[in-house]
Task: inverse folding
């Protein structure tokens, strides 16, 4: 497991991926701020009415497309390692965003896997 933050290029890539995904899947979000600290990416959501809320924490695994997942628990004001709808503790940043947004934006369709053709 890598220690420290991912390189700047990976940070930029992660921010871009999450912003683009949110723009298409979550129109009620105005922004998806991401901050990095100690090998984690903290993902928040800013709604179109200006409200910002924490969503999840992604753990840098050293692989661009796979990040560990922890959901933000408002009841504990902290993050809890969790599994994604796939049943895995790590996955794509988009899968993590959908999982957290499904919970905090009250849209359980985010947890459904689209059928493959």
Result:
């Amino acid at each position: 497991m890598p220690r420290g933050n991912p390189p700047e290029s990976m940070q930029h890539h992660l921010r871009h991926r999450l912003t683009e995904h949110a723009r298409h899947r979550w129109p009620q979000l105005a922004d998806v701020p991401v901050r990095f600290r100690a090998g984690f990416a903290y993902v928040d959501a800013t709604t179109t009415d200006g409200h910002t809320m924490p969503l999840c924490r992604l753990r840098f695994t050293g692989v661009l497309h796979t990040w560990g997942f922890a959901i933000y628990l408002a009841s504990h004001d902290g993050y809890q390692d969790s599994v994604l709808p796939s049943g895995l503790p790590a996955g794509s940043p988009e899968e993590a965003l959908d999982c957290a947004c499904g919970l905090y934006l009250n849209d359980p369709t985010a947890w459904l896997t689209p059928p493959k053709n």
